[in-house]
């Protein structure tokens, strides 16, 4: 099993310091079950699985899991370094999300997405779908 997973070129829905969600095109490097580095371009380290996400894909934090609740102490529910790497990747090019995802990825996911739009699921740093 690789030590790192690198998700390349996705639109990350990142919380800024004022707790606003800002769509940001970046790479996301995961190690173990934590988000390790978020940057415009991340070079893959040794023992790294590289996953190329489509440019219109949106990576969003999972808000809860079966065994945890949403709170800051669990480091879940935000895309930030050192937070748990539990994410859902949505296809922004699907027919129902195509127009909306480019304008407002958050609204597109909430209003237009369906289970068929889920491209990938990462739970505790492991790609499960």
UniProtKB/TrEMBL annotation:
Superkingdom of origin organism: Eukaryota
Species per Swiss-Prot/TrEMBL record: Elsinoe ampelina
GO terms of molecular function: hydrolase activity, acting on carbon-nitrogen (but not peptide) bonds
Name of the protein in its database record: Uncharacterized protein
Annotated SUPFAM superfamilies: Composite domain of metallo-dependent hydrolases
InterPro entries named among the record's database cross-references: Metal-dep_hydrolase_composite
């Amino acid at each position: 099993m690789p030590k790192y997973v690198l998700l390349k070129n996705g639109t990350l829905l990142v919380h800024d310091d004022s707790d606003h969600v800002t769509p940001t095109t970046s790479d996301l490097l995961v190690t173990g079950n934590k988000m390790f580095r978020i940057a415009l371009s991340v070079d893959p380290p040794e023992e790294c699985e590289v996953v190329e996400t489509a440019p219109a894909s949106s990576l969003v934090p999972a808000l809860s899991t079966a065994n945890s609740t949403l709170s800051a102490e669990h480091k879940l529910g935000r895309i930030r370094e050192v937070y748990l790497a539990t994410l859902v990747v949505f296809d922004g090019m699907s027919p129902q999300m195509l127009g909306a995802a480019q304008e407002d990825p958050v609204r597109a996911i909430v209003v237009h997405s369906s289970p068929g739009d889920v491209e990938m699921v990462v739970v505790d740093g492991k790609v499960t779908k």
